[in-house]
Design brief:
single chain; alpha/beta; seven-stranded mixed β-sheet; binds zinc ion; Metallo-B-lactamas
Amino acid sequence: MREIVDGVFELGLGFVNVHLVVTDDGVVLIDTGLPRRSKQIERGLREIRKQIGDVRTVLLTHNHFDHIGNVADLRQRSGARVFAHAADAPVITGAIRPEVKGLLPRLIGKVMTAEPTKIDQLITADESEPIPGFTAVHTPGHTRGHVSYLLDRAGGVLFAGDTAGGGKDGTLVSGPKQVSADPAEQDRSVAKLATHNFEHAVFGHGRAMSGRAVERFREYASALPKD
Ligand SMILES: [Zn+2]
Ligand SMILES: [Zn+2]
């Protein structure tokens, strides 16, 4: 695990990142990785001298299997409260099957399905404070109910989910658009995030960035076609 800023850790599970945040009220997980990887998350917790019962909150960015893979198991064993946007909820709870774009993702999705779970708190507002210190920003496009989270720490840490990604050379790249519900709307959501302020940004896929990360979101937004 890598510490991004004080008490914010990044755990890579294959091609996807899970983030752990140590707060005064236990550990907050942002997303839960690929299915059947709970053990690796527990190992990450042990690395920072925490255990499964210390996880109080799981904030989900969106309903793709590589982000909700262990949420059912973790919720059950930790008693954590799970937050997700209402528009993404039916897939997470198993009420409807996920709509997957593209042949390869569809094949992978057939093998890798996340166990459904109950959601404790639905996010419905454009911006809300699900738990102290965090702001949830609705960033639709990748999925209709995609949410990014801003943590008020170290000048601001953005958990961008799949709305954007971290490039190898510290650049901002678009999120995995081939599986996005609405790529143009996803770009508008990057522009929306650019109106906030944060020093650091972490992603579902790719490298974390530090040092006026928001500026790279602003550059990305200013290069978008104007309509
Ligand atoms: Zn995704
Ligand atoms: Zn993803």
